[in-house]
Write a structure and sequence with these properties.
The chain is of the alpha/beta class. Helices cover 43% and strands 14% of the residues. Strand 2, helix 3 and strand 3 form a beta-alpha-beta unit.
Length: 275
């Protein structure tokens, strides 16, 4: 039984893979005392991402170019781990910080969010301001209480994440919107967290390390515009009643008691390495 799946979306990441990024992730996984797998979800790359990833990853999904959110969804559906840790290929948050999120999962969290807080060390002022604006809008319009919704480092219990993905509207898997380039799809994280809260899942924000990784493929202004556009789409979907009914805090806790009273610990919680 696989305890942990690491899912990494990729779009033209050949140079990063050649630099040894996946070897770093593999080394961390091999040091875990429980079974793991590494999945690379390739979003229609036009470079040598796929053949290079095949040398290190357990699974490489060759997908049509549909955007980062679609690649992540495909990766999650292909995963077998009881916990899914999603990471970006640039490892702006070091994979070693995954241990912090897994500790939160072991303590009962359904979702552990890697959080950079209100700071973005080394990031250009423009990107920091745009990111802060996105966070404030998600708080104002959707009531999300998190200081960082957009960090690409999160650990979910897989079954709960699959349930959340089934309830998406703006980022539904069959969404027909055309996508170009390596978008950060900040709206995807916002919609997932909104649905998770409405389902009463236990979401915990965990401080992680982070460093700015320059990229010519991600355009901050364009991504901020797309994120804002999708944020208003999410608000409209909520107003139209397209999401699950929100549970009160008390009913959410009752649900968690019902679910976890007889819940068996995950393999990551109980695994003991054979002697």
């Amino acid at each position: 039984m696989i305890a942990l799946s690491v899912v990494i979306p990729a779009y033209n990441e050949g140079s990063a893979i050649e630099a040894g990024v996946l070897e770093v992730v593999r080394a961390w996984l091999e040091a875990r005392p429980f079974p793991t797998e590494l999945i690379v979800a390739d979003d229609g790359s036009t470079d040598d991402t796929v053949p290079l990833a095949l040398h290190t990853a357990d699974v490489v999904l060759e997908l049509p170019h549909s955007g980062k959110a679609a690649a992540l969804c495909a990766g999650v559906r292909a995963a077998h781990g009881e916990v899914v840790l999603r990471s970006d290929m640039d490892l702006a948050t070091p994979i070693e910080d995954g241990s912090l999120l897994l500790e939160a999962n072991r303590a009962g969290a359904d979702v552990a969010i890697g959080s950079r807080g209100m700071t973005r060390p080394g990031a250009p002022p423009q990107r920091y301001v745009l990111s802060l604006g996105q966070m404030l809008l998600s708080r104002l319009l959707l009531g999300l209480p998190f200081s960082d919704t957009q960090c690409g480092f999160k650990a979910w219990r897989r079954e709960e994440l699959l349930t959340v993905l089934e309830q998406l509207v703006v980022y539904a898997p069959d969404r027909p919107d055309a996508v170009e380039g390596a978008g950060v799809t900040s709206g995807f994280d916002v919609e997932c967290l909104l649905v998770a809260r409405r389902l009463g899942l236990d979401i915990r924000e965990i401080p992680v390390s982070w460093k700015h990784m320059p990229s010519r493929r991600v355009r901050p202004v364009r991504e901020a515009w797309r994120g804002t556009r999708d944020l208003f789409r999410i608000v409209a979907a909520r107003q139209a009643g397209l999401y699950p009914p929100a549970r009160t805090e008390s009913s959410a806790w009752l649900r968690r008691l019902d679910v976890y009273r007889d819940r068996k610990p995950t393999a990551a919680e109980t695994w003991v390495a054979p002697k």
